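Hi support team,

I'm filing this because I wasn't sure whether my run with pyridoxal-5'-phosphate finished correctly. The job status page said complete, but I'd like someone to confirm that the output block is well-formed before I use it downstream. Pasting the exact inputs I used:
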Amino acid sequence: MRKQFDIPLFKVFMPPRERLLPALEQVLYSGQISEGEPVLQFERRFGSLVGSGNVLSFYSGTAALHAALVLAGVQPGDEVISTAMTAEPSNMAILHAGAKVVWADIDPANGNIDPLAIGRCISPATRAILVVHYGGVPAPLAAIRALAAADDIVVIEDAAHALGARYAGAPIGSHGDYVMFSLQAIKHMTTVDGGMLACNMQNADAILAAGRKFRWFGIDRAAPRTEVDVASVGYKYHMNNVTATIGLTQLDFIRPVIDRHIANGRYFDTHLSGITDLQTCVFEAVAEPSYWFYTVLVENREGFIRHLAEHGIASSMAHKRNDWHSVFSDSRTELPGLDQFYSRMIHIPCGWWVGDAEREYMVDVIRAGW
Ligand SMILES: Cc1ncc(COP(=O)(O)O)c(C=O)c1O
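And here is everything the job wrote out:
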């Protein structure tokens, strides 16, 4: 079979220039480029996309996660249960908050944190559980939230890969107390960099007010600068009007982009099943992934990667298991589910740039064997 396409694993989606550039020009020369009305408008409109009425913006997803941990009351010395199968920032944010990472094992069928393993990790020092929807496949939220509620532990969702995913019929972003989205360059939707935090708890107004201070040196921006008292540590974590303007324009175009990720993922779920030496991910029936990339588990991974590369199809493991980093060495433990997943997993392209012809070609190339 000869090479027909070059298909990258990630590709940045930008709105048409005739829509984006005038909007950017307008904001750049408006005299107001820091946090202002476009940021507030973007928070509201992004909230509609993810089913939350209370969204705070940040300059990155990592900053949003740091904020979530602190707002949830995580303090130095507390334990936060997390997954090692993620990008480093998920767990780096726990260190930013001064807490200790406790690894829970993952489900080797899909890479997501395993509720049974979480149950085994809970201790009197557990303050929060960080749940990553890996690759855009929703983690088993019902079981995790039931466990957390029984012990009065906060659940923080890292939905950096999961914009547009749904769980039990409702969008990811509408379920948990804190749900973080990343708008970094290669995510479903980008503002170049940015992070959003949906806050769905009962006392959301107080949390939002505290979050606004947290992202701006501990200062209430609405109050006269010389009259505020800074009573808590804050950071320079806010989003600005320029990136928010990119976000506002992205929102006009993003639905079909996400829908194409989902259509491709479902296509692969069907057409990559029943192949010897390859398994697709298995997940709950109530989980509707948004397939940031598509994960398969293969025998002879090196051969698989080489075979795809020869046919112009990019593939990658994308992430190093975080428990192997020395910065997390205090947290080391046995993780047999992760061992199993990590030895076979590989990610292939699935996004908006994969058209009908490309996805059929990808299936043919894989079915031809490696
Ligand atoms: C799972 C996960 N969590 C957190 C982040 C951090 O997001 P950001 O790069 O916006 O800080 C990323 C991506 O970079 C990620 O992939």
